[in-house]
UniProtKB/TrEMBL annotation:
Domain Amine oxidase: start-end pairs: 23-495
GO terms, biological process: carotenoid biosynthetic process
Name this protein carries in UniProt: Phytoene desaturase family protein
InterPro entries in the record: Amino_oxidase, Carotenoid/retinoid_OxRdtase, FAD/NAD-bd_sf
Gene Ontology MF term list: oxidoreductase activity
Organism: Halobellus rubicundus
Keywords recorded for this protein, A-Z: Carotenoid biosynthesis, Oxidoreductase
Amino acid sequence: MDTPPDLDALAGADVVVIGGGFGGLSTACYLADAGAEVTLLEKNGQLGGRASRLEVEGFRFDMGPSWYLMPDVFERFFSHFGREPSDYYDLTRLDPHYRIFFKDGDRVDMVPDLERNRQVFESYEPGAGERFDEYLEKSKTNYEVGMEHFVYEDRSSLSDFIDWDVAKQARGLSLVGSMQDHVEEYFEHPKLQQIMQYTLVFLGGAPNNTPALYNLMSHVDFNMGVYYPENGLGGVVDGIAEMGRELGVDYRLDSPVAEIKGREGAFAVRTESGAEWFPDYVVSDADYRHTEMELLDEGKRQYDEDYWESRTYAPSAFLLYLGVEGDVDPLEHHTLVLPTDWDAHFEQIFDDPAWPDDPAYYLCVPSETDDDVAPEGHSNLFALVPIAAGLEDTPEMRQEYRDLVLDDIAEHTGVDLRDRIVVEESFCVSDFAERYNATKGTALGLAHTLRQTALFRPPHRSEAVEGLYFTGAFTTPGIGVPMCLISGELTAEAMAERAG
């Protein structure tokens, strides 16, 4: 078990946390455990942020994240409080981890057995099996060194990176170049390149704009495994929230914040209903830009609108939540449908924003693993198509794209859902903006481009307002549920360091 961070300086402090996503939930737990009085204000009627749930006519959908990756991060998080994940939920390792349908009719499974995966790689390209091992060894090194020295430690200034000890640890890491360049050094076959790069969607990037360091995600994928938590990702939210209550966190739902006034020791936080809190410290897990531009007075902002307009945002998404009669074989719990050339899709996300003509997309079918997410004799699934943040999404556009996606599923997986749908809901750019105050309707936050990684992300501690802090996907270490849990720890440590 790791030694918990020394947060004693926060004992007795009164803290308001704005937003109940994983970053806010994590920060609240660390602060409450340190002895702070913590009130968490959540805009919506349930906790979890983007990891909300939709329940309709016996179907239960995870609305956002649905992959349980990096189990070591969850174990480490709960261990800080003398607990473990199994105190709150069970895990099932998926087999296969996921299935890929390529749009040329090819199909491949990635499984927990590395030897079988190695044989798959060799079948596409002579020598690729051996290079598969070499690639995973490199990704394992990047993961172990990167997590210990660059993720769990918040290196938020240039001086943190020119220290000799840091340089020594960084030696050999894939710190320069893009993921595309890096993967091409190992594999020529485009399908093998796609298998090694599909996880970039979890980071909100593309092969040509994501740093090669993120090959560490292949260690996460192949060596650490893919799991399904009891009751889905919503069950993880429930577990963390329950632990928070045990630690003393006071959760207030349906409490959208309207403004933040004051400074350390003399804050005033007012909700849209007129309720007010007067804490010593404020932590925002809300969208960073929304917090600065909408909740703070102009003189209290670190960044102006030009800064936020200049950022590269992770994609938004077009989502279809579908309750379907009968089974959906041969879809697996996690299913990817990929064009043999996906460059055009990424171009329509980052370079020339438009609704993708030939989309790469993800199908989540939790009813393959969990009988409780759909009525008997039915299947539960959602389709997720990454699209550019900021796109217009009118009802007419959604209907047209809905038909395109269902046609594409039928053509390329052989599963025709169109005449069997009994429950259907969509979610898109405008919904992300309205429900989560997400800048440009991004589904994730700031993309992990080279210029938006590590010290180039917005800081945990406001440089304009003493006592105001930030947590979640806009800060370090970045996007994804595990990263947001770690962000909560880094935010609490930053608060304790300042308070001490």
